[in-house]
Amino acid sequence: MAIPSITVEERDAQLGTIAAGPKLLSVIGEADAGPDNQPMLITKIPQLLATYEGGDLVEEVAELIARGVRCVVVKTPDDTSITAALEALKMSSQPFTHLYHLGDVTSADAAVLDSFCEEMLEEQNRRAQWYGGTRMFLEGDESVADYITEMTTIANAITTKYGSVAAGQLWTTSRVDGTEGYAPFSRFFVAQEMRIDLDQNSAELEFALPNCSAFDADGNIRDQVYLQNLHGGLAELQLVVPRTWPDRGTSCYVTSPFLMSGEGSDFQLTNHRAVMNLARTLGYRAYAGQLNKTVRVSKEDGRILEADAAKLEKLIQAQLDVGVLGKPYASGVTATIDREANLLSGAELELSIDIVPLVWTSNLRMTIGFKNPAIEVV
Fold first, then answer.
1. Engineering a disulfide at 57: which of 11, 33, 191, 321 sits with its beta carbon 3.0 to 4.6 angstroms away?
2. pTM to 2 decimals?
3. Which domain holds residue 91?
4. 48, part of any domain
């Protein structure tokens, strides 16, 4: 007996080794965050916010609001576990595509967040990926070298194709009360990610990060600031960290919006997950419309008739062309129906979607030298 179902399997490691629509953010922080436990910011942010452990929710939300990021707050029970927060979020009718974990991400947190994102895709066909951060420097007595050592241990324990983890801190002015101090780099990275479209990279040089600095009033690098171009070691572990660039003054930038997916994975950047989620949900939606509908098979071999296979491909391809290639968010996307399945014997009708991603030019090379036109160089 066949029970109707639709199964989706993601392929990975297909590209070789490589170094849409509005984004709806859910921020998860303390259930009792806010002055005197009053959720004063809820009415000011129209997209999605759920709560659990760690982090300064008021400051984080204020930065998001200032950058024009839309959120909606969903209060969780007093149980501050990550599971309780995600269960509350799962039951919410509010739309979301991204999660922001407040507090220090552990390998256990990453596993729970990954499981949640997979469940959203598999059971509800809802896009989901997450952001988080490591701890900040120990106040006053931790050197950059010691911080790198500690972050290396943390990074080596996390592998995820859904999550991006930021490390480090930058000097900032509070959007709430105007005081100055350090804030986690994840605050500025996530706000930037939410401001751009799926075809853009948050590390582009036109995206200098506002309201943050690595320098003191005299123009010197602060003692407890990690910069990739100055110190090195953390971006190599796929942690998202700040950096500066020549001829760009004291502005800070995202080094690269990595996912912590490990060597060889196709999911190297947050863009890769976002585009995969978009194509997957669009393909599923179009394909699910065919569930339990009639297809004809050949009277000779029992395989799907070419006319029916081509019709189904055309229907699904049209949805992908509009949703994925309309911007475009990918270089190409192709839907293919398997013609070889023995449907009369209960075989699955299989759809394959192949995405050729965009390339973000992270490695440039320039050659320059003098030339004497009177001399032929051999």
1. 33
2. 0.85
3. 25-254
4. yes
